[in-house]
Amino acid sequence: MKNRRVTSGQVAERAGVSRTAVSFVLNGLDTNKVSDATRRRVLAVAAELGYVPNAAARALVSGKTATIGLVVSQADHIRVDAFVPQTLHSLARICGAFGYRLLVETSDTGQPTYEYDQLVDAKQIDGLIVLNPDPADARLRRLIDDGYPLVMIGGHSHPSASAVWVDSVAAMDTATTHLINHGHDRIAFIHYRHIPHHSIGGRFGGYRQALSRAGIPFDGTLVRSGDYSADSGYGGMRSLLDSGQEFSAVVAGNDTIAMGAMAAIVEAGRHVPGDIAVVGFDDIPLARYAVPSLTTVRLPAADMAASCGEMIIELITKGTLRENKRVFQADLVVRGSCGTQPISGRFDE
User: Fold this and answer.
1) How far is 299 from 284, CA to CA, in rounded Å?
2) How far is CA 115 from CA 85, 93, 154, in A?
């Protein structure tokens, strides 16, 4: 015999609350009418009983889908950027804890207008998260102007944008300065994407800022572009080595780029860090297990994603945010690949 579907009435009875309270919680309605303690109790009992909401009925009652969309602006990021899976895992957990599903869409163009149309205009979702937004994306700016529930992982210049991010300029400045302070004045840079050499923002901007402050002339012949992947880091380093340019260190736009660069250095018969010091960015889980272990900038990926998830749910349920911009700290983690002693007593194997 088939097990009977658990009803919201059974959840209410077990939780010791009214069916109205259960409806508010499970349908994602105005949470100001239900205390946080009651909401947590209802969600815990619903999970214990195996309550599965009827999506169609729920949408009819509440006008909500209980679904949050996540747009990854470049489809390849999921395949090659190890930062993305950490973000997805944390977002899925926080959404699930509040009774929401996470629907992931990717764009092959870097301009995900079609994905916005499918998710937003077709009313498939209640709110949207965009990972690595493009500041020039006009459709994204219109969504912000229209007040649609939207939070971005990555900074954005729109004054009304809701976002979580790290000050990448300051973080990469710190990483580059660490190398400069240990005697390096010919420092190469392999970015995770194509970027004009005149750019003054982001990780590339932090690299240039550190060079300028130290009085080291910027040399565009020491810069290569990548595409987030270890393969592009390998290719970028091969290009640098084949160019005949002298350099004693390289800063990579992310850790996967750095690991590809290290492989190319070793394949060329060079030594890391004896011949070329290497610094990455992100501190992905594999960074500490590289040989040698990778010096890198640690991004709090899980905390950033969880904060983003809480923000989008607050926007959906309350229509406003107490704080619409959250900036996280990134720390330099000194390991074996840069060939220096730890600074400020910090060392992480």
Assistant:
1) 8
2) 20, 23, 18
Q: Which residues of 109-141 are buried (b: 16+ CB within 10 A; e: fewer)?
A: eebbeebbebbbeeeebbbbbbbbbbeebeebb
CATH T-level fold of 8-62: 434 Repressor (Amino-terminal Domain) (1.10.260)
In CATH terms, is domain 67-164+300-328 a member of 3.40.50.2300?
Answer: yes
The string of pLDDT tens digits covering residues 213-237 is 999 999 999 999 998 889 999 999 9
Tokens of 265: 């250095």
- Cβ(273)–Cβ(337) below 8 Å: yes
Name residue 328's beta-bridge partners: 166
- Comparing C-alpha atoms, which of 230, 228, 261, 259 is closest to residue 247? 261
Report the C-alpha gap between 125 and 249 in whole angstroms: 46
Handedness of CA 199, 204, 205, 211 (dihedral sign): negative
CB atoms within 10 A of CB 18: 12
* pTM of the predicted structure, to 2 decimals: 0.76
Contacts with 114 (C-beta within 8 Å, 6 or more apart), sequence order: 107
